[in-house]
Amino acid sequence: MNRPKMATEKGVPSNSRVMMLLGQLERMNGDIVRQAETARQVTAKILHLIQTQEKSGKEVMSKGSSGMEVILASLESTRDVQTILNILSILTELLTVGRGRRVGVFVSKGGTGILFHTLLSASKEMPPSEELMLQLHSLLAKVGPKDRKFGVAARLSGALNVTVNLIKQNLQNPKLLLPCLQVLRVYSTNSVNAISLGKNGVVELLFKVLAPYSKKNTSLLKVALDALGALLKSKTNARRAADGGYVPILLALYADWHRNDARHRHMLIRKGLLVCLRNITNIKLGRKAFVEADGMRVLYNSSTECLPVRTLDPLVNTSSLIMRKCFPKNRLPLPTIKSAFVFQLPHVPGTGPAGRTYSQGPGVDDVVDESDDNDEADTENDTENEEDEKDQQSPNDDIETDLNKLHPRKGPGRPYEELRVYERFFVELSEDFQGFNFESSKSSSNTSLSSPFSSSVAPVRSPPRPIIVPTAQAFSPKHTLSLPGLPKDPQLPPPASASSPPAPLTPLQLDNIHVSKDQEKTEDSHIPTTDRRDRTLSPLGRPPTEAQTIEKDLAHVLERVSLDALDGVLPLDADEAHIGVKQDDVSVTRQIQSPLLLGGLSARRSGGGGSNWSSDCGSEGPEDEAAEGAVLEVPDTALLLPLHDPDLYVEMVKGTLSVPQYAEVAYPDYFGHVAPTFREPLLERVYGVQRAKIFQDIERLIHPNDILDKVVYDLDIPSCPVIEDDGESLKFNSQFESGNLRKAVQVRKFEYDLVLNSDINSNHYHQWFYFEVSGMKVGTTYRFNIINCEKSNSQFNYGMQALMYSVQEAISGSPRWVRTGTDICYYKNHFARSSIAAGGLKGKSYYTLTFSINFKHKDDVCYFAYHYPYTYSTLKMHLSKLEALRTPQIYLRQDVLCETLGGNGCPLLTITAMPESNSNDHICQFRNRPLIFLSARVHPGETNASWVMKGTLEFLMGSSPLANSLRESYIFKIVPMLNPDGVINGNHRCSLSGEDLNRQWQSPNLELHPTIYHTKSLLQYLAHIQRAPLVFCDYHGHSRKKNVFMYGCSVKETVWQSNISATSSDLQEDLAYRALPKILSQIAPAFSMASCSFVVERSKESTARVVVWREIGVQRSYTMESTLCGCDQGKYKGLQIGTRELEEMGAQFCVALLRLKRLTGLRNHQHLLDLESDIIGSQAKVVSSCPTTYVLDEDEPSFLEAIDYSAESNDEDLEAENERAAEVREHPDLLEQLSDSDNHRE
Ligand SMILES: [Zn+2]
Q1: DSSP code of 1136?
Q2: Whole-model pTM over 0.85
Q3: 739-757 pLDDT, tens per residue?
Q4: Per the residue annotation, which of 380, 387, 623, 1121 is the catalytic one?
Q5: How many other CB atoms are found less than 10 A from the CB of residue 767?
Q6: In whole angstroms, what is the distance from residue 1018 CA to residue 1007 CA?
């Protein structure tokens, strides 16, 4: 083609030649009609030049050249067919070269409009010139996709009909048909055009092109399918196609192609057919037609055959998408989605979630509405995780833009008279330690072993101490009935308590604000700990008298084994059946009943009523193994875990009040969890796992005869949750503290659908699970599906595994939770609820979490949980054991802040160091230590928060120099479990009122949200006496993000993130709030600064963090979120998080507070001294100035916190941004996490 020689030979610069001709053409334009012959010649010459010389084309299209204008003007004005054809050929030549820039120029010069104009004129000729139409459509097909206004211009010019008529007339003329269809394809992408074309019968027309099946003209078919696919996006057209009976035709075509395209050369046609089906099935009528045409089977069979060929994935994925959409929606197999447990609130709130739940009629969740507004339709794509693309909203929507709300409010907002009652929880602020013998306390060893929960037993080996250490027992042990005794009460120390810690504070009884508290109830529910010295060394060698005692014990509140249910035969020694609860705890091992018996136990569990432990469905048949019950030795976890003691745990459970009145203890909580030493990496996702699972689900429809649908466990039949036991099914149980499993349905031999219970007084929040499985077979793979999850995505798709605890493993020396399960994935399933039942807020669809398990041991009892369980009884046990860690140098007090709705105590801890002496200076330093206020577990499902809190508490009670320094630096006020009821009853997010307690901080209700009400009051009291804490931090867990990170509050960063204009005074804010997270990011391996946020969101205005910041005025007010999954940075990158890492996090938090102290120095709190002496007034015998005794770590200078982190933080933010961007590319789910405010599980 390139013959530049010619030009050079003649010595004429080529540019002058083509430009000269164009000049000539331009001059003719005014009169081009009359000079038709010349125009023909000139355009022919230009065409020849452009065809033969690449250079010529370049010159015409070069910048500054008016060549294109001249050509278009000529096209517009000429009527001569030959000239038009010449010009169209010139344009075709010009626009074929280059990558769209030339088309861009053409479009910008109005070329498209001129082409449509020419098309219209040409269509009026009878008959129209076929060649002209061919040329015009070829050119339009080239230009169309690059011109955004193409569709509109086509419609306005009337070109749609011209093209459609041409198609109708040329169905047998592939040469012309192809470009026409190509143009039609572009027209159809415009939704208005699509409807208009549909009205003109184009859908039907296209089917004439498509059918019958033929391998001739495949390019034609491909284009026709594309056009049809585009048209079917319109619901009107989809309806037309469904009504016209085209769904079976498409399916038949697809089946034909699937059969005949053995070498997969026509993937695009097959995909095109599927796209048509996908779009038709976006409407209900289409789905109906699809199912009636046996579409499920057609696509299922073809897909199954495609599965082995990886290149066919797009077909399988689209097929799977269509099948999922058409899978008939079922309601959950439940009588109602309201919780299976009922808790009657003291009064039903008129509004709020509980109010709504109460007012909903019984049948409301029966409604499964399948409207045409299929919310997935527009966003679904063919990737495995199509859900990721949904629910995207701007992350900026939620930012607080009201500057008034961004400014901390001054004043506690309540009169001091009301707050004064909280003084009793701050004894340390007025304590003067007169009469306390510091010398003797220093010389005495750590011997006080008594527990705050069960101190009827006098501590052993503890020499009498004349002075009462101000520590209190939180749970009102019986011997301290002479309440309320404050530690410094001169009446107090009776001889008995000389050797035991001083009397506790009573649970709060604020008569003036009408808190009703039942002191007696609390006390009665606490049973004295078994005195260990009384125990015999062997459980078998126990004297009869003691056995009788134990039998009485058995009959008491709780026993996990109902012996008479065992074939009506009275059991052996009560002690034997009573697994491991009573025996010697000095040996390294414990002796417990044989594993065979353990296996049998779950079948003899008591009914859902709880107290009816001799349930009538206990006739499970003979348990022959049980009777043999060899006694096994198991590791004594009390010796492995400093804060664990199985016996003590059982005692604690006895005092825990649950709504279902649980009478059993789960083995993992009993034995305890010894964190494994091996690494648990994030699970790598198996390619195609979701698809495989979905296909198995679809098989339920395809092969209905394989489906058992046998209910094996059902809490809705309270007297008989275990339905039957024929040895062919697994046995389930969830009737223990923190348990959550409502129903189990055996779907296939080794597959179970599991349904979770909603939070009490609500009908959703299904996420937390904790249940027991037994009766398993070895050497087979069980598939579990939790079918009523609600979130649209989950870390289970990104490496997280559920936790499993094997009792057999525990017995053989590994009492621990391990991350377990393969083939894990999380996806939208075919269960749904009505939008009314969903509260109109959430999606109607449910999601499935599926995982597969191979059990290692026969007759094992295994437990599964969403995350490492941490029950309320565990907390009480840990607090009791912490008491034992107290040395004379430690000031530890445990109070009961209040009672929950469910009647459980909410513990409040005070930890600091004892003053060095009772000298004024020491007392003053003691009282004036800054306060650190910590809380956790407002959300019951976030058990990781409790493990972090355990790490914090253990560190604080430790003997390390750091812990010592820390105690000497601060007074810690800790509410380790803000929602005991939720934890006990297996809720995921709410309290018994069905409400998220972390959305109640603005105006907590005394009756409905007592723990929040009183915790907030403590803070208000502190604000009132000018002792607002230095740091407030509420520990949480995050289900959608990795790492540990913090949310804080900053006016400046909020303003930055929004577009509100703010005065400079709003931007004057020191960076104090960044210091603690910054330190944590340096010292705690799991902590990630990049994930932190300091923006105040509207949806969070009633969270602890925002309210404590705004109302109490705590600048360093945080939520600390720990991942439930694992880390993607730092030392633990690629690993799932375990209790070891979580506890370490809690300890590192303490270390960070020490570093923070170095930064903040003394001066910030100097002024408190004067104020404080005013308030404490007469009681205080201290002077108002103290030496700087609590400056530690002098190797680093103490300095004020006006450190400018900005330079640093800018870099860091940039880096964070980059990282985040990279991460988003890697994990598309992150986008959703970033945008969906609901996902910040604060
Ligand atoms: Zn939370």
Answers
A1: B
A2: no
A3: 999 999 999 999 999 999 9
A4: 1121
A5: 26
A6: 17
